[in-house]
Amino acid sequence: MLNLFLSNPTANHLINFQGTLLQSIDLNKVRNLKTNFQPPSSLILTKCFLNCIKKDHHSLHHKHKLQNKNKGVNEPCCVSCEKRKDCKKKECCWHCDQELESNFLFCSGCKKLQPPNEKSDYFELLGVEKRFDLDINKLNDSFKNLQKQVHPDKFHFHGGAEHRFSKKISTNINRAYKTLKKDNLRAKYMLELNGISSEQKIIHDPELLMDALEKRQLIETAESPVLEKMQKENEKEKTEIKRKLAKAFLEKNLSEAENYTIKLQYLVKLEEQLNDKLF
Amino acid sequence: MISLIFKTSTQLFSPKLVTQTLIKRFYDEKVIDHFENPRNVGSMDKKKKSVGSGIVGSLACGDVMRLDIDVDDEGVIKKALFKTFGCGSAIASSSLVTEMVKGKSINEAMEITNSEIAVELSLPPVKMHCSMLAQDAVRSAICNWKEKNPDHFCVCGGDEQNKN
Per residue in A261-279, pLDDT tens? Predict the structure, then answer.
C-alpha cells in the first residue's frame, strides 16, 4: 500500500502526512546506501524524495506514478492483479491499487475520486431507471446528491488528479441531467441508445406539419383566451403522447417510438412558443 | 487634449459599433438581411394544378418550412413563396431558396444542393441542417407538382413518404 510521505531530513522515521507512524526506518542508513540501494516493491524511494520536505514536490511524485500506471492498456492494472492468477482485469484504484466496485465514483479503500467511467450511459450515470417515464423528483434528487459529492469546488486542494477527474465527471453529470430532464431530449436520447439517430432526420408528414404550421400562425395573431385554451389542449395531448411513448419504449417498438417522438417534439415546441407569448 | 481622447474613445466603444461587431461574429450579414427583409413570404392555393406545395420539418429543432412553387406550361418555375417557423438561419435558407428557383426549370431546381445554400449564407456547421431543410422543401414541392402533372416527364429526387 502506497501513501504520501512527508520526510523530515533530520528525523529517523517515515510518517505519513496525517501524522501516524507507519514505518520506522533508519534514514541515515538508507542515505548512505544510495548507490546500491534496491527498494522493496511496495515502497518507492528516490534521491530527491529523501531530501524533500515540500508538499508540492510530493504531488509531482504522484504524477510520475500515475503516468507510469496508465502506460499499457493490456498490462495488469495493479500490483494486486499481478499477484492474482485469476485476474479478470477489473478496474483498480489509481492510488491504493484496491479493486473497485462497479459504477464506482470513489475507492472504497482510500476514498479517492476515480477517473470518469466512459462506458456508462446517462441513465447509469445518474442512477435512475432506464425508462422513458422515469420519476423526475428522483432524477432531481440524484443529480443534486451526485453534484454534492463530485463538484470541482470540493477538490481544489486535493491534488491535480482528483481535481481533473471531478471536472470531467461533473461536466458529464450536467450534460446527462440536461438531456434526461426534458421529455423530447430524453426520447431522442433513448432512440439514439437503440441505434436511431435523429440529428439529420427530416420529417415529411404533411398532416402533422400543416397542423404545426397553422398553430404557430395562430399563436402569432390570437388573443390570450384562445392561447390559454390552446395551452390546455396541448398539455392534454402531450400527456397522452408521453404515455404512448413510454409504452412503445417498454415494448421495444422502435418505429412507433420514433413516430411518437416526432409528435412530442412538435408539441414541446408549441408549448415553448405558447409560454413565451403568454408570459 | 483630454476632451479629444474622450471623444474618440466614446466613438470607438459606441453601442452601435459594438453590437454590429458582435452580430458580424455570430450571424452573417446575408442571414440578417434575409431575416429582416425576407423575400417572397406567403402561400399559394394548393388546389391549383400549376402549384406545387412542399412542407418539411426538422426533428432536431422542431422547425417547419413550407415552400410553394408556381410552374408554367414549359416546366419553368415562375414564382415561389415560403413560410418558415424557425431560427434565423432557417428563415434565411428558405428565403434564399425562393430566389434561387425563380426562372429555373424543374430539373435544374431539383439539383439545388444544401451546400450551395450554406456557402452563400456562410452557415456554421451547427446550422447546416437548416440548409438541408431548404433543399428538401424544394424537392418536396417539385414532387408534389409532378404528382399533379404526371404528363410532364421528370426525375423525382425520392420523396416516397410525401403523400397528398
Answer: 999 999 999 999 999 888 8
